[in-house]
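Input:
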Amino acid sequence: MAAPRSCALWGYCGRGWSRVMRGCRLPGLRSSWPGSPLGARLLSQEKRATETHFGFETVSEEEKGGKASPDSTFCLDPMEMIHEDPPQFYQVFESVAKKYDVMNDMMSLGIHRVWKDLLLWRMHPFPGTQLLDVAGGTGDIAFRFLNYIQAQHQRKQKRQLRTQQNLSWEEIAQKYQNEEDSLNGSHVVVCDINKEMLKIGRKKACAQGYKTGKSYRKNLQLGLAWVLGDAEELPFDDDKFDVYTIAFGIRNVTHIDRALQEAHRVLKPGGRFLCLEFSQVTNPLVSRLYDLYSFQVIPVMGEVIAKDWKSYQYLVESIRQFPAQEEFKEMIEDAGFQKVTYESLTSGIVAIHSGFKL
Amino acid sequence: MVTLLRGTLRPLRLFQALPGPAADVPLRAASQGTGLLYPEHIPTSLLQKVLLTAGSAGMALYNPYRHDMVAVLGETTGCRALRVLRDQMKRDPEGAQILQERPRISLSTLDLDKLQSLPEGSLGREYLRFLDVNRVSPDTRAPTRFVDDEELAYVIQRYREVHDMLHTLLGMPTNILGEIVVKWFEAVQTGLPMCILGALFGPIRLSAQHLQVLVSELVPWAVQNGRRAPCVLNLYYERRWEQPLKALREELGITDPPMHIKA
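Output:
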């Protein structure tokens, strides 16, 4: 399997290995060389031989279709990616994956739905927007995004209908010829480091009626793709997405600055970075009640519902470790974003940070 | 107002785990490392114990297959009863030996081949038969986590591991009816609130026919035997594998069950 594909790859990707390999997630090939420009990843010679065995489904399809587009985003088949040294929180999320949604509802008393809705309203996407949702395992943001776009499309169609009551038969016939896809080119890619969370997200997508294709490219056309990847080293090319969101995921990243740099890299110029995350509470009374609730009630809930005290203890501790609104804003600015703002919700329990790549 | 509240509540140690963390973080539970009395220990505050009690009781009733919830209930409510049990064990010579040597019953400590080779009717052989017929293993017991005393944590662990022995002694299978009968016996013997609650609320899920049999014959028999027998935690079962079961029953004053319950 390795040899013929690698030949095709050599012949096809005229720009050479570097662009191809940037997308590769390989064990052992960690951080970029110091001093290299943002995005270029130079790889050592001796690693090339082992790189070919990863699934190259998407590339071969391109080759078959004859679409010569070295600039296209490609992603390796998610389920073949192997992560060598899973970070500490990986095992935590493996065990919490199944009960994740139930526990979210119980712990936040359902308020997390409002927070995520608010994030979408701040984003205000329109048909044609390409979203990358990182650490979006079970797909909450992705589904909301697709619903938002579809609702907009429906509203647009209703408006159009009202103005089109006096069309001639010819014009009506023409309308049938231009079938407008409800998504109109928008799609969302859900990227998560954890396979279990992605599996659950996929199941939810199927249950809601979203079709899934066999390859990444096909999934993009259908509007929803699931990719296994690390926020610190995204398997995507530069300048690919209009919006990058990360909801309740960035506090689990070991090197937040790297994740922010990656976000900056994959966004198109003019793209927007949005982060929904737990933050510091400003009001002292709310802070005491919040502490009490977090440390006394949440681990108990985790034990009773999910049979897992320790994971939820870790969760509430990781929330406390995360920097406050102003500090995080500065970190985002350091990564190269401009016009960075934040909005505290529920007295600062969560905050939405927003920045633009200009 | 908040400081006033804190001032009155602090002596109650409602929000602090025992042993408590630093005084300047009164509302935060101790994280790992500080104050662990035994490897699996999770220090909990009074409020957490109350919430755990309520939550585990509710979940155990809602989903009877959550045996871990019954175990947690036992740990959070058993403080007083465990102390009484521990003192009882200290007074008895065999019990004191158990407390000192801390034997554990698990697949790694049991010599299954030796038990298999024992004669029919002996405790070891009957115990093995019980495990086979009911398809259970001594390794399914969760470790103790929420008891804030290391010796008491061992006592409750011993109680859990001896539970299977009680099934063998009483001749009860591991279905709901058999478990309730054993719970009644244990409630009388140990006085653990979890056993009492289990004995009283367990029958909720029984059919009318079973309930009638339980109330009329099985419960009186279990209670009578429970009162008559000495503390079952004082028996060093690991040294009694060869003892014939009948002889052990006579020693403890346990009569035959009024009817045979199928597994």
